[in-house]
Design a protein that fits this description.
heterodimer; A: MetI-like fold; 0% strand; B: alpha/beta; D-Maltodextrin-Binding Protein, domain 2; 2 domains; 45% helix
């Protein structure tokens, strides 16, 4: 018998959810508020009501071309995500539907690469990029971002694929479907929510990646992370300008996240809630 | 035939592409007011040098340092011009990471560069970086509050006078702190101030044999004086204040005195940003009567990494950006007050500059009062006023900065902080092979 949920419990849960959500969102909200303050106001202390000046935005706009950085961010995040899916869908398929004794170990090994601090491989990677002429190139960075996020993509897809009954694929095979047809016409349509949420999450991760995108680029391939970093000043007030730059940098991904939140939540909880 | 045409076409296209990009140089810099202004004025350079294209990479100071170090150490060749400070130049020049600047042009007038600044940027008599702007540190004080306290600031005050003035100026009820000083941990933050201050107290980081000196009475006097002064007359939460935080406090009228970079003078005297713009006086950094003042010396400078393939174009740019002509250009477009200070003697002889920048004389005197090759009262084996020009200093300076910041915050005693600093420095020096 289902447990009755009282109104009181519901209210408490709702309030708790709001409090947690606000706590998580607050730093972003405060960044946006700060971006509408003057530099003096920004450093003066905590205040939730800004004077509403947009001088920081005009200064940020005048100082560097936002659009070039934005375009690089789009190319890198979308490019690396598409590339990651091309590699990860077959990988996850094979691990989910024809697992071997070592499948779990391979999955764990892939995840373990995420546990190493990135800076540990900075020099080897930098040298490889230098020798292959990939420093400050979009192609090099797209591959790099793809490799960084690949373990997570494979893991997510693997979890989604495991929820799909193997019998359906067997039935398709009985009907004479080739491996390719099986993946394209049977598996993919069933896994669309999973693939979509993996894609969205991966775009967000790639968009926000700041270690490699700052260290492997100079001018041509620099995305919005480099744009934000350029507004920190050793001598001179910069909090409002930095906040304005950050707001401009996160706005596209924030808007994308807002419109796709249902898809994102459905994908992330896929399999957990039956 | 078709193949030949195609090959020829491809070859000429790539040759054209190469020609178009041959002289595009990449400049790594920080986001300082003077640097941003230079980016706006580069039309003057590209008009005179139409074959050279400029690409800018602006980064946060520490990220810039890390990026540039990685690139130079691996000879990545991503940058053609670097913005670096007085700390890096001698170390990097000795590693052969930088090219000496020998073709700055006939009308460049190297001798016009302020000798103290040029000395800090030279190794074995060769200039390895050209100063873009230079600074020392000095006392900025509120003339009105000083008068109210019944005191007169001498041109060259002592630390005892500073303490007396700070005590008298502190008016907590009205939100006025007698003195604002750096407390935020970092080799370029609180340790820049404290190392320079310790020089005037007769202290030194290391003796002639690289033995750390934090257990000597001079360091104890320095740190105890600083902590006591800040506890009695400093702002709340001083241990997290750096240059920018103190600048904001001073501009809002919350500091009686502030000892920091001479560059700050143009910010605190700017009526658009500062509420106390017309009430600021300047004096040399204090001393203890031992012959050394507590002021530092720093220059953001332009250097050319050894890995560049466009050294000639890069040197042309460095020459332009640090020339007398550039100073005139800024003056004509933005006024004399906005000219990058602290690099050329001729600027300080210019009556128009003296009129526009009331802090000009005191800035020059402060720069001249710093001697990077003899920074301390007792002899030392290192170069550098507010830093020790060895590669280990960045890490060690920040560790010691954290210990001293904790002492200021009251999390540890002065004695404990000094003992831990001594241990950390001994470990770093042993590991670095300085101590046997």
């Amino acid at each position: 018998m289902a447990r009755a949920v009282t109104t009181q419990h519901k209210t408490i849960a709702t309030v708790a959810a709001w409090v947690v959500a606000l706590l998580i969102f607050f730093p972003i909200l405060y960044t946006i508020i700060t971006s509408f303050k003057s530099e003096q106001e920004a450093i003066q202390g905590f205040a939730l009501i800004p004077s509403g000046t947009t001088e920081s935005y005009s200064e940020v706009q005048a100082q560097s071309g936002y659009f070039k950085f934005f375009l690089n961010s789009v190319i890198l995040s979308v490019g690396s995500t598409v590339l990651a899916l091309i590699v990860a869908v077959p990988a996850a398929w094979s691990m989910a539907f024809s697992p071997t004794k070592r499948t779990k170990d391979i999955l764990m090994w892939m995840l373990s690469t995420k546990m190493m601090p990135a800076v540990a491989v900075l020099f080897p990677i930098y040298l490889i990029f230098r020798d292959t002429g990939l420093l400050d190139s979009r192609i090099g960075l797209t591959v790099m971002l793809m490799l960084i996020n690949l373990p997570i993509v494979v893991w997510m897809l693997y979890t989604y694929f495991r929820e799909i009954p193997g019998e359906i694929l067997e039935a398709a095979r009985m009907d004479g479907a080739s491996l390719w047809n099986e993946i394209i016409y049977v598996l993919t349509p069933m896994a669309v929510p999973g693939i979509a949420s993996t894609m969205l999450l991966n775009i967000i991760l790639a968009w926000n990646e700041a270690f490699w995108t700052i260290r492997l680029t100079t001018t041509e391939a620099a995305p919005l992370t480099a744009f934000i970093s350029s507004f920190s000043s050793p001598q001179g007030l910069f909090w409002a300008k930095l906040s304005a730059a950050s707001t401009l940098a996160i706005a596209p991904i924030l808007i994308m996240g807002w419109f796709s939140q249902k898809q994102l939540v459905r994908g992330l909880t896929f399999g957990a809630v039956k | 035939m078709k193949l030949r045409t195609l090959t020829l076409g491809l070859l000429s296209a790539s040759a054209l592409a190469f020609a178009a990009h041959a002289e595009s140089i990449t400049i790594a810099t920080v986001n300082n007011g003077d640097m941003v202004r230079m980016q706006k004025l580069t039309d003057d350079f590209t008009k005179a040098n139409p074959d050279i294209q400029l690409n800018w990479v602006t980064l946060e100071e520490n990220v810039l340092r890390e990026r540039v170090t990685t690139d130079i150490a691996t000879k990545g060749g991503q940058y053609d011009v670097l913005t670096i400070g007085t700390y890096e130049v001698p170390i990097w020049a000795k590693q052969s990471w930088l090219l000496p600047l020998e073709k700055l042009g006939d009308d460049y007038d190297v001798k016009d560069i302020i000798p103290a600044i040029a000395g800090g940027l030279s190794v074995d008599g060769k200039l390895y970086a050209a100063p873009f702007y230079g600074e020392s540190s000095f006392v900025m004080y509120r003339k009105d509050l000083m008068e109210k306290a019944g005191l007169k600031m001498p041109d060259a005050p002592t630390w005892d006078f500073i303490k007396e003035a700070a005590d008298k100026m502190t008016d907590r009820a009205n939100g006025v702190n007698g003195i604002c000083l750096r407390g935020k941990a970092g080799w370029g933050e609180n340790m820049a101030f404290l190392t320079a201050m310790s020089n005037s107290f007769g202290a030194r980081w290391f003796d002639e044999n690289w033995k750390p000196q934090f257990e000597q009475p001079e360091w104890k006097n320095t740190l105890q004086f600083y902590v006591d002064l800040m506890k009695a007359d400093g702002p709340e939460g001083a241990s997290s204040n750096g240059f920018n935080e103190n600048l904001a406090l001073f501009q809002q009228g919350k500091c009686g005195m502030w000892i920091d970079a001479t560059v700050a003078a143009s910010f605190v005297s700017d009526p658009k940003a500062s509420q106390v713009a017309d009430k600021v006086g300047y004096a040399l950094a204090p001393d203890k009567g031992l012959g050394k003042r507590g002021n530092w010396l720093w220059a953001w400078s332009l250097a050319i990494p050894a890995g560049t393939k466009k050294a000639d174009a890069a040197e042309k740019f460095v020459s332009w950006a640090t020339s007398k002509h550039y100073l005139d250009l800024v003056a004509s477009k933005e006024g004399w007050a906005n000219v990058p200070p602290g690099t050329r003697t001729s600027l300080y002889n210019n009556p128009e500059y003296q009129k526009a920048a009331p802090f000009a004389k005191m800035t020059l005197d402060s720069i001249n009062a710093a001697d990077p090759t003899h920074p301390t009262v007792k002899p030392v084996p290192y170069v550098g006023v507010q830093f020790v020009a060895i590669p280990e200093f960045q890490g060690l300076g920040t560790t010691v900065g954290q210990l001293f910041s904790a002492a200021l915050a009251g999390q540890s005693s002065v004695d404990d902080a000094l003992k831990q600093a001594q241990d950390a420095a001994t470990a770093a020096m042993t590991e670095g092979g300085y101590l046997k």
